Amino acid sequence: MTRSPTERTLQASADDHRIASLAALAIALGMVDAAIPSPLPGVKPGLANIMTLFALHTLGWRAAVWVTLLRVVGAGLLLGSLFTPGFWLSLGGALASLLLLGACRALPARHFSLVSHSLLAAQAHLLGQLLLVRLFLIPYDNILLLFPPLALAALLGGIANGLIASHLVQAHDKD
Amino acid sequence: MFKAGDYLVLLALCALLLAAFLQLGRHAGEADSVIVRQNGTETIRLPLRLNRRHVARGPLGLTEIEIHNGQARIRRDPSPRQYCVQQGWLRHSGDIAVCLPNRVSIELAGTRQAHDSLAY
Questions:
Q1: DSSP assignment of A26-52, as one string?
Q2: Within-domain flag for B41
Q3: B59 is a domain residue
């Protein structure tokens, strides 16, 4: 076959491969998240975010952004929720927590571990989602009454995911 | 695993959470009136101390609002799924029942503070 003059081949770097495999793991964890029954709409363990934290600490913030956005779109495709309100909420929460994680780079690593990042990102995720709900889906202030119980869930989920992610990072650093 | 700053973050978030829950307890206060909205704009505000019925006319027909013993409910509504009717009696400030097909909603409102006057 003759090569088309406009054909281009893209070389995937080693980092691209790492990002792709982390995103794939994150999508799989996202499926687990969706399968776990939840006591209140909006309460999810957010296990997929472990991969975001892992990418952040092993490859950097840009990789974390890639892993997260790929995961949001990939999970949306698999769950059939692409471009539904649930998808936008997930995207809004993801963007809010990524921005906060970007800002978290200013925290000195000597005093703040991954658990801090996880805790703060979980709250940012919740705030981003609630803001989106208040602005576009349910324009009543009463929706803010959901904040305390959801923030408690985010706190617990933040600790758990932070601990799991720091175990993974430690195991990765040993190799 | 945990570093000093992590405890600081955790403590700050716990304090914030406690404040949020206290605020929540304050917010779910007494209601003293019911706001009737049509097409999202307030049409009338009825006091909850007087037992009465009020009829609002929407695009599908009549929505009947009942006030009884300091509570309010949608008594009758032409909406097909009857969500707002099934919601039953509303008691607390901020409670809301929306009859979306007929474009009518009621919301209980109270004075923002739990006490409007204290006397000794």
A1: HHHHHHHHHHS--SSTT----TTHHHH
A2: yes
A3: yes
